[in-house]
């Protein structure tokens, strides 16, 4: 992808391991560590909870397989933004990108920064007054790393992914081999009656699997993207699915179901202290901190690429600045800085968690549209040779579509006000789009 101002290109230097680490690292944040009790409560039993994690993983895998076929035909920087534009036209592409760069991406980065700050304050016994400054410092430091060559961000992703998997492996091993509980068949019926049920349990796991699609934003920086991008998406989701199932099984082997319910988000820290002592609890906290930092790194690395792709297409205000690539690092430095500034404003003035939740509805609306993509492309280009084809087509994309529709309907039923607000975020982008299009014509 050429930059018309300085002829600098994005650095196509990321291999399979870098892409795979970004998929795994971006998915595994804090969800698997804090959602065990919530999923168990909604499912009503340990068997139901395991099936909910499996169902969430299968839905996510079908989504990944579906996007993988599209990615092989559109291996460009921008991911979902590019897919929507080429499938449905410029307006739909713009709106999907607009929502991600203005609200969703910065809000996710901000919420990770805020949660990381709380953990650091608790771990080092820092005064609460430092909550916001530490959150800002954390996103700035990770952001600075991503102002350098993409090799540094990718290398950091590999390191943090390995580090976060070490405590996960310890939890799994001790749970499987030293746990004295039966992991299947234990129910908490008194909770199940007032909880959301199996469907809500699946919904909770889907949010813990989210983030896998962000590696597609780096299509212009991955070596042989038509081959490596599908491999990274599919292998990454499969790996996370196995990890989530093993961790959940290990927790259920170590702690009685009723105890998990009583502990809530403290179930895994309790397990770490029980199995490894106080030092084990501290090491787990370090593992979770590293996990969040790695997840934040993946998002800071990938979301600015959407902004860059949109600026290259002359669809954003200040496009000449945002489309700039550093001749030295070959990274979109002003897009990264802009993303961090928006995230910082959210940390200081807004509830970033709530903002990211508001965008879930619209994200999944765009997902559903994208999942129809393989069918559209197969009809548009009959007989074309594809580098990757969806297995079990059309069943696989149908499952992905139904899973996303389930999230959409659930959001409408549980948070109608939030759904309407998320529509407002998207609609604000329409006049921006037409203004920039008119500027293009005048030029």
Description:
By secondary structure, the chain is mostly helical. The protein has a single domain, classed as Amino acid/polyamine transporter I. It contains 19 helices and no strands. Helix 6 (90-124) runs antiparallel to helix 16 and helix 6 (90-124) packs across helix 19. The longest helix has 46 residues, at 267-312. The protein is globular. The model is unreliable at 1-5 (pLDDT under 50). It is a multi-pass membrane protein. It holds the Pfam family AA_permease_2. Its main location: membrane. The chain crosses the membrane at residues 14-38, 50-71, 91-118, 130-148, 155-178, 198-220, 232-252, 279-300, 321-349, 355-377, 389-410, 416-435. InterPro entries: AA/rel_permease1, AminoAcid_Transporter.
Give me the secondary-structure topology.
Blueprint: H1 16-27, H2 31-34, H3 36-43, H4 46-73, H5 80-88, H6 90-124, H7 131-145, H8 150-178, H9 189-192, H10 198-209, H11 225-254, H12 257-263, H13 267-312, H14 319-322, H15 333-349, H16 352-371, H17 373-380, H18 395-414, H19 416-442
